[in-house]
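Can't attach files on this board, so I'm pasting raw text. These are the components:
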Amino acid sequence: MRVGIVGLGTMGTVHAASYQEIPGCQLAAVADIQQDRRERLAQKYGVRGYATLADMLAEEDLDIVDICLPTHLHRDHVEMAAAAGKHVFCEKPLARSREDGLAMIEACRKAGVTFGVGHVVRFFPEFRRAWEIIQAGELGQVGTVYTFRGGGGFPTAWQDWYAHYHWSGGLTLDLIIHDFDFLRWTLGDVERVYAKGTRGRDYNRLEHVLVSLRFKSGVIGNVEGSWLNLGGFGTKFEFACERGLLTHDSKTAAGFRSYRQKDSGPGGPGVAVPENPLDKNPYTLQLEHFLECLRQGKEPMITGEEALAALDIALAALESIATGKPVVLRGERGVEG
Amino acid sequence: MRLGIMSFAHMHAYSYASVIKELPDVELVGVADENQDRGKQAAEQFGTRYFPSFDELLKTDLDGVIITSANRDHRILTEMAAAAGKHVLCEKPIATTLEDAYAMVKVVQETGIKFQMAFPCRFIPSVQRLKALYEEGRLGRLLAIRSTNHGKMPGGFFIDPEAAGGGAVMDHTVHLADLVRWVFQTEVVEVYCEMDRRFHDIPTEDCGLLTLELSNGAFMTIDPSWSRPDSFYTWGDLYMHVVGTAMAAEVDLMRQSMERITLDQPSYQWNFWGANMDYYLVKEFVDSFREDRQPIITAMDGVRALEVAIGAYESARRGQPVKLR
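---
Top answer:
Structure tokens for the assembled complex are below.
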């Protein structure tokens, strides 16, 4: 299996490293509009680097295109890769709009290629274990759920694209869509969304969002997301159930912690940097799963439709933030709408 | 100063009675309770006199009373106490309806008694630290607050919709609604609420989530759920994640605890060593009539907090946010 990655920011770089660990898979080429980025990775992995996906497709014989571009560029690149007959793996969020998401799903269906989306949180062991415990029903009916994600500050990237709301959708569409996907996977579909955010109230780099979710099952959810500096990136969840609680806090659930004496990176001097070294990292696991599905001709766990359902929740939250009204999800699932 | 307690229906009565014993120059003169057995037992426990009726308690030489009855009875007991010229420390929420709450405001004004709402969370040192940071401008402008006041299902009158005026939302919303008003000198302008009964087979809701719009341009969620299992390591929590433009802060009352792990069940418990907020609550009440001034937590503070809870029920019924002002 020969893979080409387009977009060599944080996630493209992580995926490139992951492919080295997966047997039967070869990182064959990389593409990025920024010359220094593509040259650095091309040299590191001994592959050719291209400026664009079109150039890469013209020159290379690929099985898979892995798209790690900013959200607003997903649609065009997925359509181009699919039209070239390549299987497509695309970073989350699926797209900036429902229309784009549907078009991507349709493009892959028409081309007969497999489409997978990188909702990697489902491959993090603490989230996966929580899913297993809730599925097993050992805690009884879930009553309420809370999640937190963020606190690592405002993300910086190519052309400051996270700061462009019409490109990224802010943290609701980019960050806590992880939790929307995780919660929907664990608790089923969402009925109603009400949300408030700092957007429009303050400087847009101080983004903080609180979302109220009502699931079809009746579960009441509270999703908190932050692009402020809150002592470093972290995640939390709490499932409150009839027969007990299930809680996680990445600030305490760390197998390794280090403290820098000098300011040499995120956090600054003396700040704890929690880590969880694992035998297999979640990014490698998600790509391994996608490749295994291709080999066996199976649908991956996170299809375009699954990613679209998470996108619907995020878009509903954005609509609620903008209008101040609750938004009812009308079961708009899948390509059929 | 001489105090009496009217009803032990609310469990906080026991804490207040203990605190009275600790306060210098304050005496628990007697207790009355609509439940004779409970009242007699409490009188014995705290070494004081049991009065067979509220009237008889109020006829004695008291300075003030603490009303810890079912929420519905706060109004009638306040009116009785005020008529007898006794100062009142009233358990939260102030009442079960806004009509009752405003009637209490009126009787306080007309009789001139001192009236204090029991919002003891204002006396949590971490809350006071937060208020100081905000007032010094070090937090910047307030952006958002996520808050929880979780508890165990309390039973008793709390799950009787008539006597309590609701369930978890009525019970636990008001503490955080009062704190945000007091710490940030802001008002709640709009309420949205999801609520349901998902944990216990009881007549009231046991969980919910309120989303509030504040007059200072910030927003807030309150989770008032009775969602802690009976085996939980303490009674519940009082938590605020406060995000300002210059600083973020967390208030987490019960973290001033040590972990206690034993061979008994439940084997894991938190042992709280922080300040006793009820001590300062009752001290403020006594100080107010010693110093002949109104206490810092007024009947109108009780009204404003109740408005948020009442708004939450209306929002849940209508499925829409409800404007309070």
